[in-house]
């Protein structure tokens, strides 16, 4: 983990999207501050956090926006899709309804985001999975594969299990894609190699004798 004081080599904007109450704010707080609040207030509009990671010896800064899941704030949420490099699509694995609503959230992401946006699926509340699980792991894995998402992880904002791993993986995917994009753009603007035309030598005509 890199220091937040260091100048980043790359900066990416992320959104955390999903139903109200799936733990988006707690997930952000756990990642950025290593803290968990059981009675965290419901997000009104958006909340913000940032952290710098180390990816391939580069300092990668993630600016993370936690969005409100309530319908009344959806217009505000949609405006934050613009220029987002990645989206954490979150559900509560103890609430089947939050998983079923992923289809609506995914549709909204694709309608409002760049076609190249990185989408990473997270099943939160892993600490409650043993007794209260309503969404099976293979169920969510199949959803991620069918919709060609960039990854899937079950995690717990409360215990911090796999929280840092989620953002590390997202950072790696984002950096890899940006490097590949730069390479494509550089190739597109590079002038083609010069064509060298070599002069052909005419065979010497024999002089006729008279």
From TrEMBL:
SUPFAM superfamilies named in the record: P-loop containing nucleoside triphosphate hydrolases
Coiled coil segments of this chain: none
GO molecular-function terms, A-Z: GTP binding; GTPase activity
GO cellular component, one term: endomembrane system
Main location as per UniProt: membrane
Keywords: Membrane, Nucleotide-binding
Subcellular location: Endomembrane system
UniProt keyword Iron-sulfur present: no
Ranges for region Disordered: 182-210
UniProt-listed PROSITE patterns: RAB (PS51419), RAS (PS51421), RHO (PS51420)
Gene3D superfamilies xref list: P-loop containing nucleotide triphosphate hydrolases
NCBIfam families: small_GTP (TIGR00231)
Family: Belongs to the small GTPase superfamily. Rab family.
UniProt protein name: Uncharacterized protein
Organism: Blepharisma stoltei
């Amino acid at each position: 983990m890199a220091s937040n004081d260091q100048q980043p080599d790359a900066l990416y904007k992320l959104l955390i999207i999903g139903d109200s109450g799936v733990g988006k704010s707690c997930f952000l707080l756990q990642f950025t501050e290593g803290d968990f609040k059981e009675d965290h207030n419901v997000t009104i509009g958006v909340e913000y956090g940032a952290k710098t990671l180390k990816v391939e010896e580069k300092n990668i800064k993630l600016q993370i926006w936690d969005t409100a899941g309530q319908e009344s704030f959806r217009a505000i949420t949609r405006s934050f899709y613009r220029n987002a490099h990645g989206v954490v699509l979150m559900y509560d694995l103890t609430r089947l309804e939050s998983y079923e609503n992923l289809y609506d959230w995914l549709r909204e992401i694709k309608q409002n985001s760049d076609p190249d946006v990185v989408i990473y699926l997270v099943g939160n509340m892993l600490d409650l999975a043993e007794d209260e699980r309503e969404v099976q792991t293979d169920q969510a894995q199949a959803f991620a594969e069918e919709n060609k998402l960039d990854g899937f992880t079950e995690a717990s904002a409360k215990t911090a299990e796999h929280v840092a791993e989620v953002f590390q993986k997202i950072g790696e995917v984002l950096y890899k894609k940006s490097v590949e994009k730069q390479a494509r753009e550089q190739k597109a603007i590079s002038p083609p190699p010069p064509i060298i035309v070599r002069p052909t030598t005419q065979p010497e005509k024999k002089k006729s004798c008279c």
